[in-house]
Amino acid sequence: MKIGFIGLGNMGAAMARNLIKAGHEVTVFNRTPAKAAPLVEVGAVAAASVAEACKGEAVVTMLADDAALAGVVEGEGGILGTLAKGALHVSCSTVSVALSERLTGAHAAAGQLYVAAPVFGRPDAAAAGDLFVVAAGSAAARAAAEPIFAAIGKQTFVFSDEPAKANLVKLSGNFLITTVIEALGEVLALVGKGGIDKKQYLDFLTSTLFGAPVYRNYGNLIIDTSPRPVGFAAPLGLKDVRLALAAAEELRVPLPLANLVRDRFLTLLATGGEGLDWSAIGRLPGKDAGEAQ
Amino acid sequence: MKIGFIGLGNMGAAMARNLIKAGHEVTVFNRTPAKAAPLVEVGAVAAASVAEACKGEAVVTMLADDAALAGVVEGEGGILGTLAKGALHVSCSTVSVALSERLTGAHAAAGQLYVAAPVFGRPDAAAAGDLFVVAAGSAAARAAAEPIFAAIGKQTFVFSDEPAKANLVKLSGNFLITTVIEALGEVLALVGKGGIDKKQYLDFLTSTLFGAPVYRNYGNLIIDTSPRPVGFAAPLGLKDVRLALAAAEELRVPLPLANLVRDRFLTLLATGGEGLDWSAIGRLPGKDAGEAQ
Amino acid sequence: MKIGFIGLGNMGAAMARNLIKAGHEVTVFNRTPAKAAPLVEVGAVAAASVAEACKGEAVVTMLADDAALAGVVEGEGGILGTLAKGALHVSCSTVSVALSERLTGAHAAAGQLYVAAPVFGRPDAAAAGDLFVVAAGSAAARAAAEPIFAAIGKQTFVFSDEPAKANLVKLSGNFLITTVIEALGEVLALVGKGGIDKKQYLDFLTSTLFGAPVYRNYGNLIIDTSPRPVGFAAPLGLKDVRLALAAAEELRVPLPLANLVRDRFLTLLATGGEGLDWSAIGRLPGKDAGEAQ
Amino acid sequence: MKIGFIGLGNMGAAMARNLIKAGHEVTVFNRTPAKAAPLVEVGAVAAASVAEACKGEAVVTMLADDAALAGVVEGEGGILGTLAKGALHVSCSTVSVALSERLTGAHAAAGQLYVAAPVFGRPDAAAAGDLFVVAAGSAAARAAAEPIFAAIGKQTFVFSDEPAKANLVKLSGNFLITTVIEALGEVLALVGKGGIDKKQYLDFLTSTLFGAPVYRNYGNLIIDTSPRPVGFAAPLGLKDVRLALAAAEELRVPLPLANLVRDRFLTLLATGGEGLDWSAIGRLPGKDAGEAQ
User: Mean pLDDT in chain C?
Assistant: First the structure.
C-alpha cells in the first residue's frame, strides 16, 4: 500500500518503521522534520507537508492530543481537504471521544474512510510490532486498514462500526492502568511502613493472584526510585484521565477512581513532577504516609 | 502429627480434610458440632471442647473474626490455657494486626509456639489443597508448621519472624482484590453505558494487559447478574477492609481506595445486600450511573 | 445611562428591571423574544438583535453558559463587532475563567471596556436588588460600571484588574455552597438513621456554630422532600463544578471535594434528577444509607 | 449541689471553676493531682481518688477518650461502684456511641442516673460559661443535671431519652466542623494559586453567604501560618472523626467527607504534625497544590 504517516514520536516512528518493513510504500511527515531522517534511511519518503503525506490510499496519524490531531485533519491543507475520496484515515492517537465523533462526520461528508485504531503498548512493544490494536469503524474502513494493523500490532480487537467507541475503549484502558498504579502505591505504602520488604511483597502478589504484567511493571516502577527515562509522561497521563472523565461526564457515569487519580496527577505536576513518568503518581501514597521521597 | 482443628466453615472443613488426607491424626472442633460429622466419616475425631482439640502437637484455627478467635484462644478452657508448652498454634483466620500482636505475646508467655498463616484462595482452592499460605512467626514455629502448610497449600510465602506481619499481608491482599472489583465496576459501567458489549470488553482486557485470574473472575461476577451462591459474604468483605484501615491508621497511612471500597460495602449493606457475595459492590458504579439493577 | 441588557432569564429579567427602576434607559434582548414583553411594559425598549442592544454606553450580559456568552459576544453581529469604542461590556454570567480571559483580550483589541461581574444570590435577591456583585476589570471599566452595580446589587466586592479573577471567585463560591450541601446531606443521613429528628438537629446547628443562611436554607431543602420550584437547576450546578475543576486543573490544584460533588451531580442526573433543584444532591447520602427517597 | 468533677484539662478546669462560681460544693479529681491546685484556691476540695469525688449528688466527667472514661467509670473504685444509688453521672467527654450505650446499661443496673452532655466550644467559651450543652438521658437525669448545665453553658439542647444520641450529635458536629476546614482549605488553595488575596477573599465569604463564626475562625487559622498555641490537638481531631466513622459504620451510613478528613489527619500526623492544632489539616490542600508550607 501507499501510506502516509503523520506523527513521528517514540510510538509513531516505531510504527512507521514496521509499515516499511512490511513492504508498504511509506511517506512520513512530522512537524519537526528532523524526526523523519532515520525513517528515510530505511526507505521512507519525507513529506514537506501534511498534504504530501495524503497522496496515497491511506494516511495514519499518531499525534499527542486533540489539538494536534484536529490541526492536522481539519486545518488548511489538512487531511480532510487533501486525502482522495475513498482513501482511508487510520487515527491511532489517544484523543477524545468527542473529537473522534466529529471526525467521523467530517470524513463521511468528504467521502473518505475513517477508522479509529488506538493502540496499547509502550515504545518497545511498538518497535517489536507487538501492539494491541483497538479498532472501530465501518466494515469497509476496517477491511482497508487490515494490512496496516497486521504490520503494527500482534492482535486487533474490533469493537464497533462507530469509530469513537475505540477511543472510549482506549481511554478506559489507560484509566484502568492508573487504578493499578494507585492501588499498588497504596498497598506498598502500607506494607512498607508495616516493616515488610516491598520487593518481596510484590513478588508474592505477582506470583499469586495478581500475575499480570501491569502489576509487575508498575510495581517495580514504584519501588525502584532510581532515575529513569520517561516511558509515558505524567502530563499525558493527566490528559488521558481528563478525557476519560469528560467521556464519562457526557455519559453521566461517576468515576470516583478517576477523580482520585486525576488529583494524584495534579499533585505530582504541582510539586515538581512535570518531567516524570506517569508511574510516579504511585509514590504519592507513600509520600502522604511520611515516606522519604 | 497429632493436630487439632478449630473452625469448620467452608474453608476450615476443606483444610482439615486435606490434613487427614496427608496422614495426620486430626481432632476437629466446631461451635456447631454437626459440621464435624463429614470429617469424622473420613477419619477425624470429634472434640467436645476446644480443650480436647488442644491435646496434640499443634492446633489450627480458622475462624470468622477477631471475636471468635479471641474467644477460642483467650477464653476459659481456651488454647492458651490448655495447649502444651512447646506445642504450636497455627492461626489461619483473617484477623486484625492488633489481635495477632496480642496473641504473639500471650503464646510466648505461655511457652507455646505461634505462627500466623492466613491463606489466599476461595473454597474450591481450599478443597484442592491449592491455597497460598502467607506465614510469619519464629523459625521454630514455622518449621513445626511445615507439614501443615504442605497439606493445605500449594505454596508458602514467609514474610517475617513477627506473626502479625502475615496478617498485614493478608489484609492488604484482600484490600487489593477489592480495588480490582471497584475498578472493573467503574470501567464496565463506563463502556457499557457507552454502548460497548461488556463481555467482549472484559475478554479484551484479560487477553491483553490484565491477564490475571482476579480480573477474569471478578469481571464475570460483575457482568453476570444471575443469582449465585455466596463465595465470600459482603459483611466479611466490609470487616476485612475495616481491619486494613485500622492497621493503616495505626501506621499513619492514608488509603483513599480503601475508604471508597468501605463506603461501597456500607451502601450495599444499607440497601439490601447483606446476603450477597462481596463482588456485588462492583455493580454499584453502574447503579450510580443509572443502570437497571 | 443608555444600557443594553442581553439574557432575560429569572435572574437577568430581575436585574434589568432594577436598572429601569434606577432611571436608566434600557434596551433588552433575549433569544426568545417573549421574555422581553414584561420589561417593555415597565419602560424597556425591545431590541430585535444583539447589535441593537449594543448602541448605548454599556451592555450587560446574563447568559446560561460559555457557549451562549461566546455566541453573543464573538458571533456575527455580536458585541465585539457592534459595541462602540470606549463603551462597556458588563458580563454577569457564571462562565469559565478561560472564556473570560479570551474576552479580556478581544475587548481590549476592539477598544472596548470589559468588566466581569458575576453575582451571588437567588432570583428573589435579584428582584430585591440585593445581589452581591463580584467585580474585576480595569479601574476605568469598574468606574463606568458603578451605576449598574448600584442598581442591581447591595454590595460590590472588587478583586482585581483582571476580569477573569471575578469568574474564579464566583466559581469557587458556588463550589463552596455545594460543599455545604454535601456536608449537610451526610450529617443529616447520619443523625437521621441514628434516630434523631433532622429538623431539630438542623435548628441546633444553625443556632450554634453554623449560623449562616447557607446552612439554614440548604438544610431545609434537604429535609423537606415535598415538590418545589427549581431555584437553580441541577445541570447548571454540574456545569459550575465542572468549570471550577477546569480552572483548578489549569492551576494544578487538586479539589477532592469538587470531585465528590461532581459525582453527586452525575448520579443525580443519571437517575432521573435532570429537572431538580441542585440541592437534591444533598439527599444522595441518605439514599446511599438506605433511606426511602 | 455537692458535685464531684473528674478531668481537669483545659476544658474541665474551666467548667469546674464555673460550678464553684455558681455556688456548688465541688470536689475535684485529676490523674495528675497538680491540676487541682488552682481550683482548690478558689474553693474546691481535692479528692485523692475517683471514689472520693463520688460522694455527692452528682459527678461530672470531662476526659480525653473512651479508655480514660471507661477506666474512671468501670475500673476498680470507679464511679459505678462508688456513686450512691439515685445519684447522677454527667458525662461531658467526646466518646464513642458504643461506650455511651454500655454506660447507659451499667448505670441503670447500678440504680444511678446518667446523662450524656458533651459540649461545643473552645476553652475560652468554657471559661466564660458560654458552652453549648447537648444533653440526652432520662427526664429524671436531665432534671437533676439542670443546675450543672446552667453553670457551664449558655444554652442546652435536649435531643433524646437515650444518652448515646447526645454523643452522636457531638461527633457529627465535630465532623461538620472538619468539613468546613477542608472546604476552606480547598477554596483558599484555589483562589490563592489563582492570584487572589486570601484574606480579602475570606472577608468576602464571611460578609456574604458564609457569615458563621466557624468560617471566620478556621479561615483565619488556615491563612495565618504563624506559630500558635494548640486549641484542639490534631490527634484528638483524628479520634473524633474515627468515632464518627465507627458510629456511621454501625448505622450503615457512608460518609465520604469523613473519609477524606480522616486521611488528611493521617497525612498530617505522618508528616510531622502530631503537635499541631487540628485546623492544620486545612493547609494540606495548599500543600498538594505546591504551596510553600
Answer: 96
Which residues are CB-contacts of D182 (< 8 A; sequence separation ≥ 6)?
A: C179, C257, D257, D260, D261, D264, D281, D282, D285
Q: Chain C contact for B271, CB < 8 A?
A: yes
Nearest CB neighbour to C212, from listed D134, D189, D210: D210
Alpha carbon B104 to its chain centroid, in Å, reads 19
Using one digit for the tens of pLDDT, what is the confidence trace for D157-203?
Answer: 999 999 999 999 999 999 999 999 999 999 999 999 999 999 999 99
Contact list in C for residue A256 (CB cut-off 8 A) is: 259-260, 263
Query: What type of residue sits at position B193?
Result: K
Q: What are D7-36's pLDDT values in tens digits?
A: 999 999 999 999 999 999 999 999 999 999
CA–CA min distance C74, chain D (Å): 26
Backbone angles phi, psi at A120, to 5 degrees: -110, 135
CA angle A104, A107, A154 (to 5 degrees): 65
C-beta atoms of D176 and C187 within 8 A:
yes
Residue A201 is predicted with a pLDDT of 98
Comparing CA positions, the residue from D171, D147, D175, D176 lying closest to residue D159 is D171
Residues of B in contact with D266 (CB under 8 A): 248-249, 252-254
- The predicted structure's pLDDT at residue B193: 97
Query: For residue C228, what pLDDT band results from cuts at 50, 70 and 90?
Result: confident
D48's grid cell: 485523692
Measured between alpha carbons, how far is C212 from C214 in angstroms, rounded to an integer? 5
CA distance A236 to chain C (A): 14
| D contacts of C200 (beta carbons < 8 Å) | 159
Q: Considering only CB atoms, which chain C residues are within 8 Å of B263?
A: 288
Grade residue D225 by pLDDT with cuts at 50, 70 and 90: confident
Task: State the Cα–Cα distance between residues C195 and C222, nearest whole angstrom.
Answer: 17
CA distance readout (Å), D237 to A119, B116, D172, D230: 48, 34, 12, 12
The C-alpha cell that represents D50 in the structure block: 475517683
Q: Round to whole Å and give the CA distance between A25 and A4.
A: 8
SS3 A153: strand
Distance CA A283, CA A292 (A): 10
* Whether C246 contacts chain D with CB within 8 A: no
Could you tell me if D266 lies within 8 Å of chain A, comparing CB atoms?
yes
Distance from CA of C176 to the nearest CA of D (A): 7
CA distance B43 to B24: 10
Could you please report the per-residue DSSP string of D13-65?
HHHHHHHHHTT-EEEEE-SSGGGGHHHHHTTPEEPSSTGGGGSSSEEEE--SS
* Contact C232/D at CB under 8 A: no
What is the pTM for the complete model shown? 0.96
Q: Would you tell me which residues 179-218 of chain C have a C-beta closer than 8 angstroms to some C-beta of chain D?
A: 179-180, 182-183, 186-187, 189-191, 193-197, 200-201, 204-205, 207-215
Q: Which of the residues of C are catalytic?
A: 170
Residue C285: closest C-alpha in chain B: B267
Query: Residue B226: which residues within 8 A CB-CB, separation 6 or more?
Result: none
- Which residues from chain B sit within 8 angstroms of residue D234, using beta carbons? none
- List, in order, residues 6 or more apart from C122 with CB less than 8 Å away: C231, C232
Longest Cα–Cα distance in chain C: 65
Whole-angstrom distance, CA of residue C47 vs CA of residue C58: 14
Q: Which domains are delineated in chain B?
A: 2-161 (3.40.50.720), 168-288 (1.10.1040.10)
